[in-house]
Amino acid sequence: MNPTTHPAEKKTPRQREFEALAAQLCAQLTKEEIAALPPYEDHDREVVLVKEKNFSAALKKLKKATFLGFDMEAKPTFIKGQKEHKASLIQIATSRQCFIFFVSAIPQIGELRSIMEDENIVKMGIGLSKDRQRLREEFGMDTRNLVDVSDVFALLGRKNNIGSKQLVAHCLGRNLRKSKNMSRSNWAMYPLKSSQISYAADDAFSSLDAYMELRKMLRPYKGLLAPALLKLLRY
């Protein structure tokens, strides 16, 4: 239901447009529909592998951005009850570059606090509750201005959580490569395979791309959006 319209009121064409868009975004696309879309991975952007030596330069570039895509990777566990491994990678993407931070190779990794706790830089990703917990428990970072894009869809009326594959298909009309084998690969291994690097980078790139496109799609309906949605979209 439109958050600003009483059921008995006659809806304007703009209100009907908004409700149609929200319904479209909340629909669950089939595997076949997504498979028919062009691949997301054709964007051809730079990925920078960050260690101790180039950490400061990477941090300097990231501080210039207003919006950043974010994700983390950790070595998976396969035994029930086994303690989870600590984060291996932190991926942060601008519109042009993705910086992949190798946690164990960067003694000063805690300095990422200047990005993650900066209220003037919007960081976004998908399913961030565990990542937020990791940042707090493993790195002592109290994240600010961190947006979980799935919350936007929940407020639009989506009943189930949206994954990154559905997100990219809906917002960008692209098919994001996702693989259980890749997501469960050993992220603590060094050096990483090129396929792992691309996979990790695309998680951060795609969150940023989809979020920015979502802001464009919903901007014409700002006057119809609930305050919570306006806050998440940072209008």
Largest sheet: 6 strands, mixed
> What do we call the CATH topology?
Nucleotidyltransferase, domain 5
Number of helices: 10
Distance between the termini: 22 Å
Sheet with most strands: strand arrangement: 1-4-3-2-5-6
- Beta-strand fraction estimate: 5-15%
- Helix and strand pattern: HHEHEEEHEHEHHHHH
CATH architecture: 2-Layer Sandwich
Principal-axis shape equals globular
Low-pLDDT stretches: none
Q: Compute the CA-based radius of gyration.
A: 19 Å
Mean pLDDT: 94
Number of strands: 6
CATH class: Alpha Beta
CATH homologous superfamily? Ribonuclease H-like superfamily/Ribonuclease H
Helix content: 40-55%
**Number of structural domains:** 1
Helix/strand structural class: alpha/beta
